[in-house]
Design brief:
2 domains; Helicase, Ruva Protein, domain 3; binds zinc ion; alpha+beta; N-terminal domain of MutM-like DNA repair proteins; four-stranded antiparallel sheet; 7 helices
């Protein structure tokens, strides 16, 4: 599933292709995405210029002239790419946003857990996102983070995956960050010391920045907005490396279940 670095890569790739362009009449495929495109949205999008494209957590925000924002989520297998309009459609292309330069933004999604939603006002958008998302990892205040960990008996892995505490981190980057910080994924959050909380906060930031530099990780379907794959999967220390030697101590990487997800970790390096 695309996490923060993959979504950020899509946004960076799409920005030069979309900003300043005007959207035409949206073309909707036969199959619905997770939340269906409402016909009433089409006239509210058509003829609007794209002023900006940003990211919040794993959500892509396409800000249109006026007050409306088109909000896209890639779900598990979503792909957003720009193509010349006559180019044949790939299977599983569900939404097409024609642009005024003869190209179109295409939303392809094999598993259809992705979504495209129109928010009429900045207030409605803020309400939607603020109810679901904590701070961005790059803006995480040390005091807030320490208090969030100390305030729960859940395991640290569960706290990292909780989007209302911290936005954008999923299973891959949770495991990689915990390894970098030397913290066991099953560790109870309220037993973390201030030093460990801080080292985990820094690890999350470093891991995400490196992953963005690598254009994210391509495990299955992920591609960036330019159609290019990510390369960070080559740099995984623990994720998906069960049984292979730990890069620090050579102990075989183990996998355990925490917060309902597989947690890849080094049983020796992570306490
Ligand atoms: Zn190790």
């Amino acid at each position: 599933m695309p996490e923060l670095p993959e979504v950020e890569t899509v946004v960076r790739d799409l920005r030069p292709l979309l900003v300043g362009r005007t959207i035409g009449a949206v073309r909707v495929g036969r199959h619905k995405l997770r939340s269906p495109w409402k016909p009433a949205w089409t006239p509210r999008v058509a003829g609007r210029r794209i002023d900006a494209i940003d990211r919040r957590g794993k959500w892509i925000l396409v800000r249109l002239a006026g007050d409306a924002t088109l909000v896209l989520h890639l779900g598990m297998t979503g792909q957003l790419t720009v193509h010349p309009e006559p180019e044949p459609l790939a299977d599983h292309t569900h939404l097409r946003f024609p642009l005024d330069d003869g190209r179109e933004l295409r939303f392809r999604d094999v598993r259809r857990f992705g979504s495209a939603t129109l928010f009429a006002s900045p207030g409605a958008l803020a309400e939607h996102l603020n109810a679901r998302l904590g701070p961005e990892p790059f803006a995480l205040e040390p005091e807030y983070w320490f208090a969030a960990l100390r305030g729960t008996t859940r395991c640290v892995k569960a706290v990292l995956l909780d989007q209302t505490v911290l936005a954008g981190v999923g299973n891959i980057y949770a495991d990689e960050s915990l390894f970098r910080a030397g913290v066991h994924p099953g560790r109870r959050a309220n037993t973390m010391t201030r030093t460990q909380a801080e080292s985990l906060r820094c690890a999350v930031e470093v891991v995400l920045r490196r992953a963005i530099d690598g254009r994210g990780s391509t495990i299955r379907d992920y591609i960036g907005g330019s159609g290019l794959k990510g390369g960070f999967q080559e740099e995984f220390a623990v994720y998906g490396r069960t049984g292979q030697p730990c890069p620090a101590c050579r102990t075989p990487i183990a996998v355990a279940r925490h917060a309902g997800r597989s947690s890849h970790h080094c049983p020796r390096c992570q306490k």
